[in-house]
Protein backbone atom coordinates (compact mmCIF):
# COMPACT_ATOMS: atom_id res chain seq x y z
CA UNK A 1 0.00 0.00 0.00
CA UNK A 2 1.21 3.49 -0.88
CA UNK A 3 1.41 6.30 1.65
CA UNK A 4 2.27 9.97 1.33
CA UNK A 5 5.43 11.13 3.06
CA UNK A 6 5.51 14.57 4.67
CA UNK A 7 8.16 16.77 6.23
CA UNK A 8 7.87 18.18 9.76
CA UNK A 9 6.84 21.49 8.15
CA UNK A 10 3.90 19.77 6.42
CA UNK A 11 5.32 19.79 2.88
CA UNK A 12 5.03 16.75 0.61
CA UNK A 13 8.15 14.56 0.39
CA UNK A 14 7.03 11.85 -2.02
CA UNK A 15 5.50 8.50 -1.11
CA UNK A 16 6.48 5.15 0.41
CA UNK A 17 5.27 1.60 -0.13
CA UNK A 18 4.18 -0.06 3.14
CA UNK A 19 4.38 -3.85 3.43
CA UNK A 20 0.99 -5.58 3.59
CA UNK A 21 2.55 -8.27 5.81
CA UNK A 22 3.28 -5.67 8.52
CA UNK A 23 0.76 -2.86 7.99
CA UNK A 24 -2.13 -4.65 6.28
CA UNK A 25 -3.21 -7.39 8.69
CA UNK A 26 -6.81 -7.77 9.97
CA UNK A 27 -7.39 -6.00 13.28
CA UNK A 28 -7.85 -8.44 16.17
CA UNK A 29 -9.05 -6.84 19.39
CA UNK A 30 -8.49 -10.08 21.35
CA UNK A 31 -4.80 -10.13 20.41
CA UNK A 32 -4.28 -6.45 21.24
CA UNK A 33 -5.99 -7.00 24.59
CA UNK A 34 -3.62 -9.88 25.41
CA UNK A 35 -0.56 -7.80 24.52
CA UNK A 36 -1.65 -4.79 26.59
CA UNK A 37 -2.40 -6.99 29.62
CA UNK A 38 0.99 -8.69 29.25
CA UNK A 39 2.82 -5.34 29.09
CA UNK A 40 0.99 -3.81 32.05
CA UNK A 41 1.38 -6.96 34.16
CA UNK A 42 5.15 -6.86 33.58
CA UNK A 43 5.42 -3.26 34.76
CA UNK A 44 3.25 -3.81 37.88
CA UNK A 45 5.40 -3.46 41.00
CA UNK A 46 3.79 -6.25 43.05
CA UNK A 47 5.09 -4.73 46.31
CA UNK A 48 1.69 -4.85 48.08
CA UNK A 49 1.79 -6.78 51.34
CA UNK A 50 -0.32 -7.44 54.44
CA UNK A 51 0.69 -9.35 57.56
CA UNK A 52 -0.29 -12.96 58.06
CA UNK A 53 -0.92 -14.45 61.50
CA UNK A 54 2.70 -15.61 61.84
CA UNK A 55 3.95 -12.02 61.37
CA UNK A 56 1.69 -10.30 63.94
CA UNK A 57 3.43 -9.46 67.22
CA UNK A 58 1.53 -10.55 70.30
CA UNK A 59 1.03 -13.37 72.74
CA UNK A 60 0.49 -16.94 71.64
CA UNK A 61 -1.51 -17.64 74.79
CA UNK A 62 -5.19 -18.53 74.63
CA UNK A 63 -7.13 -15.32 75.55
CA UNK A 64 -9.50 -17.12 77.94
CA UNK A 65 -10.56 -20.64 78.75
CA UNK A 66 -12.49 -22.69 76.24
CA UNK A 67 -15.70 -23.16 78.19
CA UNK A 68 -17.78 -21.42 80.81
CA UNK A 69 -17.29 -17.74 79.87
CA UNK A 70 -20.29 -17.37 77.59
CA UNK A 71 -18.08 -15.99 74.86
CA UNK A 72 -17.23 -17.63 71.56
CA UNK A 73 -14.16 -19.86 71.80
CA UNK A 74 -10.91 -18.14 70.81
CA UNK A 75 -7.41 -19.49 70.27
CA UNK A 76 -5.39 -16.32 69.65
CA UNK A 77 -5.58 -12.56 70.02
CA UNK A 78 -3.74 -12.35 66.69
CA UNK A 79 -6.70 -13.81 64.79
CA UNK A 80 -8.29 -11.67 62.03
CA UNK A 81 -11.49 -11.02 63.98
CA UNK A 82 -9.57 -9.01 66.59
CA UNK A 83 -8.37 -5.45 66.17
CA UNK A 84 -4.72 -5.46 65.08
CA UNK A 85 -5.01 -9.08 64.02
CA UNK A 86 -3.89 -10.80 60.83
CA UNK A 87 -5.30 -10.46 57.31
CA UNK A 88 -6.44 -13.72 55.77
CA UNK A 89 -5.51 -14.34 52.12
CA UNK A 90 -4.11 -10.80 51.83
CA UNK A 91 -1.73 -9.72 49.06
CA UNK A 92 1.91 -10.77 49.24
CA UNK A 93 5.00 -9.48 47.41
CA UNK A 94 5.08 -11.20 44.02
CA UNK A 95 5.64 -10.68 40.32
CA UNK A 96 2.53 -10.21 38.20
CA UNK A 97 4.40 -10.99 34.96
CA UNK A 98 3.28 -13.89 32.80
CA UNK A 99 4.67 -15.45 29.65
CA UNK A 100 3.53 -14.75 26.11
CA UNK A 101 4.98 -16.63 23.12
CA UNK A 102 7.39 -14.67 20.92
CA UNK A 103 5.26 -15.29 17.82
CA UNK A 104 2.18 -13.86 19.57
CA UNK A 105 4.14 -10.74 20.62
CA UNK A 106 5.37 -10.23 17.07
CA UNK A 107 1.89 -10.69 15.60
CA UNK A 108 0.47 -8.31 18.22
CA UNK A 109 2.87 -5.52 17.20
CA UNK A 110 2.03 -6.01 13.51
CA UNK A 111 -1.69 -5.96 14.40
CA UNK A 112 -1.27 -2.69 16.34
CA UNK A 113 0.48 -1.06 13.36
CA UNK A 114 -2.24 -2.39 11.03
CA UNK A 115 -4.96 -1.05 13.36
CA UNK A 116 -3.51 2.46 13.09
CA UNK A 117 -3.37 2.21 9.29
CA UNK A 118 -6.96 0.89 9.13
CA UNK A 119 -8.19 3.75 11.35
CA UNK A 120 -6.30 6.37 9.29
CA UNK A 121 -4.31 7.38 12.37
CA UNK A 122 -0.83 7.13 10.89
CA UNK A 123 1.53 9.76 9.50
CA UNK A 124 4.81 9.10 7.67
CA UNK A 125 7.61 11.70 7.94
CA UNK A 126 10.81 11.80 5.93
CA UNK A 127 12.72 12.42 9.18
CA UNK A 128 12.21 13.63 12.75
CA UNK A 129 15.00 16.11 13.39
CA UNK A 130 15.15 19.45 15.20
CA UNK A 131 17.59 22.14 14.14
CA UNK A 132 17.83 23.92 17.50
CA UNK A 133 16.17 21.58 20.03
CA UNK A 134 13.62 24.27 20.97
CA UNK A 135 10.28 23.04 22.35
CA UNK A 136 8.48 26.16 21.11
CA UNK A 137 9.49 25.56 17.48
CA UNK A 138 8.64 21.85 17.56
CA UNK A 139 5.27 22.57 19.20
CA UNK A 140 4.39 24.92 16.33
CA UNK A 141 5.29 22.20 13.79
CA UNK A 142 3.31 19.55 15.67
CA UNK A 143 0.23 21.81 15.81
CA UNK A 144 0.57 22.63 12.09
CA UNK A 145 0.49 18.89 11.35
CA UNK A 146 -2.74 18.63 13.39
CA UNK A 147 -1.22 16.35 16.03
CA UNK A 148 -2.54 16.35 19.57
CA UNK A 149 -1.59 13.06 21.19
CA UNK A 150 1.04 11.33 19.08
CA UNK A 151 3.79 8.75 19.29
CA UNK A 152 6.86 9.43 17.15
CA UNK A 153 8.89 6.35 16.22
CA UNK A 154 12.27 6.93 14.58
CA UNK A 155 15.03 4.58 13.42
CA UNK A 156 17.51 2.83 15.74
CA UNK A 157 18.73 6.22 16.97
CA UNK A 158 16.45 9.11 17.94
CA UNK A 159 17.72 12.61 17.10
CA UNK A 160 18.90 14.01 20.43
CA UNK A 161 17.70 17.57 19.80
CA UNK A 162 14.30 16.31 18.65
CA UNK A 163 13.93 14.19 21.80
CA UNK A 164 14.91 17.16 23.99
CA UNK A 165 12.42 19.45 22.26
CA UNK A 166 9.62 16.86 22.44
CA UNK A 167 9.94 15.80 26.06
CA UNK A 168 8.22 18.95 27.41
CA UNK A 169 5.24 18.66 25.06
CA UNK A 170 2.26 17.04 26.78
CA UNK A 171 0.86 14.08 24.84
CA UNK A 172 3.93 13.61 22.61
CA UNK A 173 6.16 10.55 23.04
CA UNK A 174 9.34 9.67 21.12
CA UNK A 175 10.75 6.14 20.79
CA UNK A 176 13.45 4.41 18.73
CA UNK A 177 12.24 1.63 16.40
CA UNK A 178 13.35 -1.15 18.79
CA UNK A 179 11.21 0.43 21.54
CA UNK A 180 7.99 0.20 19.48
CA UNK A 181 5.33 -1.57 21.53
CA UNK A 182 1.60 -2.23 21.41
CA UNK A 183 0.59 -0.29 24.53
CA UNK A 184 2.31 2.98 23.54
CA UNK A 185 1.02 2.71 19.95
CA UNK A 186 -2.60 2.27 21.08
CA UNK A 187 -2.58 4.88 23.87
CA UNK A 188 -1.84 7.78 21.50
CA UNK A 189 -4.26 9.07 18.87
CA UNK A 190 -1.73 9.24 16.03
CA UNK A 191 1.27 7.09 15.15
CA UNK A 192 4.04 9.05 13.42
CA UNK A 193 6.73 6.96 11.70
CA UNK A 194 9.85 8.19 9.96
CA UNK A 195 11.10 6.48 6.80
CA UNK A 196 13.89 4.99 8.93
CA UNK A 197 11.31 3.57 11.34
CA UNK A 198 9.29 2.01 8.50
CA UNK A 199 12.41 0.36 7.10
CA UNK A 200 13.58 -1.08 10.43
CA UNK A 201 10.10 -2.18 11.58
CA UNK A 202 9.56 -4.04 8.31
CA UNK A 203 12.96 -5.73 8.64
CA UNK A 204 12.21 -6.69 12.24
CA UNK A 205 8.66 -7.97 11.70
CA UNK A 206 8.79 -9.62 8.24
From TrEMBL:
Keywords: Ribonucleoprotein, Ribosomal protein, RNA-binding, rRNA-binding. It comes from the Bacteria. One of its GO terms (biological process) is translation. SUPFAM superfamilies: Ribosomal protein L4. Coiled coil: none annotated. Residues 49-84 are annotated as: Disordered. Residues 68-79 have a biased composition (Polar residues). One of its GO terms (cellular component) is ribosome. NCBIfam families: rplD_bact (TIGR03953). Belongs to the universal ribosomal protein uL4 family. PANTHER family: 50S RIBOSOMAL PROTEIN L4 (PTHR10746), LARGE RIBOSOMAL SUBUNIT PROTEIN UL4M (PTHR10746:SF6). Part of the 50S ribosomal subunit. This is Large ribosomal subunit protein uL4.
